[in-house]
Fold this protein.
Amino acid sequence: MKKIIFTEKAPKAIGPYSQAVEVNGTLYISGQVPVNPETGDIPEGIKEQTEQVMKNIGAILEAAGYTFDNVVKSTCLLSDMGNFQAMNEVYGGYYKENPPARAAYGVVKLPLGVMIEIETIAVK
């Protein structure tokens, strides 16, 4: 049975989707963009945007009873692959040991004109 996960500590969905869905001990977190849930602001710069995305993912993980240690797969979407190294520096700070599997893609455009979006899968 699926359980819908929602927290005020992450941005509200901007479309017909849930922040996350848990099914049989697996948590599927929708792509998170760098919107500050308290202010609605989007920070400048790829490092700052990546940090906000990771905070949003962390808030959803926490709301569902998971941690970054439970993450098994991430998909990173970048509006410019030239930002890969800077994104990777911030992202790597959240996965110092046993990082999850990951894919990173360059895309033409992301919602709200942001530079990065990350979706995440975690398992207990």
